[in-house]
Amino acid sequence: xxxxxxxxxxxxxxxxxxxxxxxxxxxxxxxxxxxxxxxxxxxxxxxxxxxxxxxxxxxxxxxxxxxxxxxxxxxxxxxxxxxxxxxxxxxxxxxxxxxxxxxxxxxxxxxxxxxxxxxxxxxxxxxxxxxxxxxxxxxxxxxxxxxxxxxxxxxxxxxxxxxxxxxxxxxxxxxxxxxxxxxxxxxxxxxxxxxxxxxxxxxxxxxxxxxxxxxxxxxxxxxxxxxxxxxxxxxxxxxxxxxxxxxxxxxxxxxxxxx
Length: 259
Known about the structure:
Elements: E1 18-22, E2 28-32, E3 49-52, H1 59-65, H2 71-78, H3 80-83, E4 95-98, H4 110-124, E5 135-136, E6 155-158, E7 164-166, E8 171-178, E9 184-190, E10 195-204, E11 211-212, E12 217-221, E13 232-237, E14 245-246, H5 248-254
Antiparallel strand pairs: 1-2, 3-4, 5-6, 6-13, 7-12, 8-9, 8-11, 9-10, 10-12, 10-13, 13-14
Helix pairs in contact: 1-2
């Protein structure tokens, strides 16, 4: 029993020390302070954020400042596709994802890449053959007295009458009709200043002044004019007139056409 007149000093009420942290929607929640063994720093962001690298930054410095759980190694792992093989090589302006692994852009499937390549190939040259699946008969500059120039001014494609003929490239029709020994012919001017000529046609599908596109049908092959049989006589010229011919096979090949 305590001595008379003495009493125990009442214990002061212990106040629980708290720390405020942000809750959902920005509402402050009071949580007990856990002491030295508790949490001293804010937790890593729950959602991903983006950080733009500044001059003098290192992954370690960024990881510390952004409270990345796992340190610079986690930051590097999450952003390896953007950083590359050397974690020490980060450049100002590089965007790093903080809080979750950055997703790399989806790669094109092989089929998509193949289709894109095929489309590029199909439109790259803008030129095509004047007639499909035809063998070459008389070659360019074959000598002979049967030609007024002393040589063959074009190349002959051996095809039967009625075979569709195509414009080798986009252009404007400068003439379409009967032209002496050439029979029914079409002459087209192209963007490079050259002219293509199609002779001995049985029928025409275009007229003078008309604009045509690559591969557009311009008529049918035949045997009109001075010929020994049906075929397409094809020339490339520097002017629309006879006598300005150049090698038509070399011209087509120079524009990516195989023959």
